[in-house]
From TrEMBL:
Organism: Paracoccus aestuariivivens
Name of the protein in question: Catalase
GO MF term (any one): catalase activity
Lineage, opening ranks: Bacteria, Pseudomonadati, Pseudomonadota, Alphaproteobacteria, Rhodobacterales
GO cellular component: cytosol
Extent of Polar residues compositional bias: 25-41
Length: 684
């Protein structure tokens, strides 16, 4: 096929591609055609560049302003488009149109993110993850702006700047990046026991998710639902991934930061591109004021959950993410979420953290995007008609007609367009009495900071508890000030004596006295829903298996394994020391990846299809030994044929339930082997 341009070489050897025929014209932003995109306008071939060169000036000017201020938090994110489908209508609870009819679909865009790191940080540090969804409903945009953890560090928004300042890079030295393991964060935690519940979640495996596709999401706050007749109920929103919830092992997470900075972003993109669309159920916990009053904690406190055993989840819809963005900047960096974006039938509670967010996000978007008209950017604009009396402002791209930019007006009496008017079916704030004195005072019902962290700890498996204790020990080992460590230990004693003792032992420190609680902790019933391992979904769907082979490997065995993995819903990725086609027993195969660049950290399970000679040779290769040893250390299934034994022995692999023959691998790969961990590393 002929190229739609004439490739030529300029006088300086530069490449010129001059269009012809139907080739689109290269133009300036204002439409002027450009004849040369390689050379500035000069006074002579070796003379100075002329200020007259408007093409150069426009191009450099635009480049100089291509970056907007990054988000202060949630700077590194990934987006995907899709739709929400109502599966169980709730008109009895809410008049919101997206919940009104079974099968009704609403377009959405979702942004997943890390919190602490900058836009250029990595995907897999231990951190809270953002899970924000914009619903483009037929009644306007609804933004459900939450995280993968159902509680937050603080109870009142006035503390948010302090929290973020403490966890961000330390002010004098500018490090560490995307990490909470440093003095200032734990100093803040040690002085603010309300943070402990979220800290427990973040130090658990929830802080290192395997994939955005295998990560829960929560609206965090208590909201209100309002029905058509004005009946109110409280509600909490939950996203549940249909692939199940899964996390990384800490060592695996740390190594992935070097292997693939974009591990989560790439995983999401490739799944959607391959047609393996991520799906999530939207569930609600709805309850009335009487139940809220009966609980031993305050539903307006964002550091508390309501266990599913107390208020069961009701699944009301599903979300499918089926389209990747066309442009990262336009659809990710310019995407603006506002918790204040609600639709009729959804309303706010008096949660003081939520109340502060309602102000903060609007102010943030104006600062980042430079204009009050950021809602006109396509990714932020409603998909339904919208109109009001607001005009002008920087970067106004609409052209309102007529004189009606105020209301009330009577211009219609003179035959002019009077513009939009309020309607009876518009948003109405749920009425409630608010006559009270003005105070800077927190309710005593917010004072219990230890009961729910204790409940979370008691809900975990022994292995998960070991991960939490080890994570806190590691983080505190990076804290240089002993008095901060001691104060954290004094707080942990109010959560669980054994937890505090394990961390103290890991730090070689004596336990201090327990901190004095503002309110005595309660022993709440454990909740299995808070444990990843107890709710593990044994499936290969959405997972990836790395298969190592070499010259002489049995192609029939490889083909059979590939077919079984695909049949189980998984993806296979073949790996060899060389990526060119290798001669196998029964054919030839070109690997998907080269061994040194495809460590087992990138896969959910591994397989070894090798001759004995190849295995002996690979047992002398550190990349091959590391491939197997790391898979074992990260508690993954390892499938192998008989010939692979020398490599298994070279990597020090001990047989267990997760080290299996090739035929058993597809089933074994649906699990992780937690019992293996105690023999591999010291856990707190």
């Amino acid at each position: 096929m002929a190229k739609p341009y004439d490739p030529t070489t300029g006088a300086g050897g530069e490449t010129q591609q001059i269009g012809r025929g139907d080739t689109p014209k290269l133009t300036t932003n204002h439409g002027a055609p450009i004849s040369d995109n390689q050379n500035s306008l000069r006074a002579g071939a070796r003379g100075p560049t002329l200020l007259e060169d408007f093409i150069l000036r426009e191009k450099i000017f635009h480049f100089d302003h291509e970056r907007i201020p990054e988000r202060i938090v949630h700077a590194r994110g990934s987006v995907a488009h899709g739709y929400f489908e109502c599966t169980d209508p709730i008109p009895d609870l809410s008049r919101a149109s997206l919940f009104a009819k079974k099968g009704k679909r609403t377009e959405v865009i979702v942004r997943f993110s890390t919190v602490a790191g900058g836009a250029g940080s990595v995907d897999t540090p231990r951190d809270v993850r953002g899970f924000a969804t914009k619903f483009y409903t037929d009644e306007g945009n609804w933004d459900l702006v939450g995280n993968n953890i159902p509680v937050f560090f603080i109870q009142d928004a006035i503390k948010f700047p302090d929290l973020i300042h403490s966890v961000k890079m330390e002010a004098d030295r500018g490090f560490p990046q995307a990490a909470s393991a440093h003095d200032t964060f734990w100093d803040f935690v040690s002085l603010m026991p309300e943070t402990l519940h979220t800290v427990m979640w973040a130090m658990s495996d929830r802080g290192i998710p395997r994939s955005y596709r295998m990560m829960e999401g929560f609206g965090i706050h208590t909201f209100k639902l309002v029905s058509a007749d004005g009946a109110e109920s409280f509600v909490k929103f939950h996203w549940r991934p249909r692939l199940g919830t899964q996390s990384l092992v800490w060592d695996e997470s740390a190594k992935l930061q070097g292997a693939d900075n974009d591990y989560h972003r790439r995983d999401l993109w490739e799944a959607i591109a391959a047609g393996d669309y991520p799906e999530y159920d939207l569930a609600i916990q709805s309850f009335d004021a009487a139940l809220a009053e009966s609980l031993p904690y305050d539903v307006l406190d964002a550091t508390k959950i309501i266990p599913e055993e107390v208020v069961p989840l009701r699944v009301i819809g599903r979300m499918v993410l089926d389209r990747n963005p066309d442009n990262h900047f336009a659809e990710n960096e310019q995407l603006a979420f506002l918790p204040s974006n609600v639709v009729p039938g959804i309303d706010f509670s008096d949660d003081p953290l939520l109340q502060g967010r309602l102000f903060s996000y609007l102010d943030t978007q104006k600062s980042r995007l430079g204009t009050t008209n950021f809602h006109q950017i396509p990714v932020n604009a409603p998909k339904c008609p919208y109109a009001n009396m607001m005009r002008d402002g920087m970067m106004q791209i609409q052209i309102p007609k007529g004189r009606a930019n105020y209301e009330p007006n009577s211009l219609d009496e003179a035959g002019e367009d009077h513009g939009p008017r309020p309607r009876d079916d518009g948003f109405r704030t749920a009425p409630q009495p608010v006559g009270d004195e003005k105070l800077r005072l927190r309710s005593e019902t917010f004072a219990d900071h230890y009961s729910q962290p204790r409940m979370f700890w008691n809900s975990q498996t022994e292995n998960e508890q070991a991960h939490i204790a080890s994570a806190i020990t590691f983080e505190l080992s990076k804290v240089g000030l002993d008095h901060i460590r001691l104060r954290v230990l004094s707080q942990l004693l109010n959560v669980d004596d054994a937890l505090a003792g394990r961390v103290a032992k890991g730090l070689a420190m004596d336990l201090p006295k327990a901190a004095t609680p503002a309110r005595a902790a309660l022993d709440l019933e454990p909740s299995d829903a808070l444990s990843i391992q107890k709710r593990w979904k044994a499936t290969l769907k959405g997972r990836k298996v790395g298969i190592l082979f070499d010259e002489g490997s049995d192609k029939a065995a490889l083909d059979a394994l590939l077919n079984e993995i695909e049949a189980a819903g998984g993806k296979a990725f073949t790996i060899a020391p060389k990526v060119g086609g290798l001669a196998l027993k029964g054919g030839k195969l070109k690997a998907d990846g080269q061994l040194a660049g495809s460590p087992s950290w990138l896969f959910d399970a591994v397989a070894l299809v090798l001759t004995e000679d190849a295995a002996k040779r690979l047992a002398q290769d550190s990349a091959a030994v590391g491939f197997v040893a790391d898979a074992y250390a990260h508690l993954k299934a390892i499938g192998h044929d008989e010939g692979a034994k020398p490599l298994l022995d070279g990597a020090g692999i001990k047989p267990d339930a997760g080290v299996v023959d090739l035929a058993k691998l597809p089933k074994a790969a649906t699990l992780h082997y937690w019992d293996r961990e105690a023999s591999l590393r010291d856990l707190a």
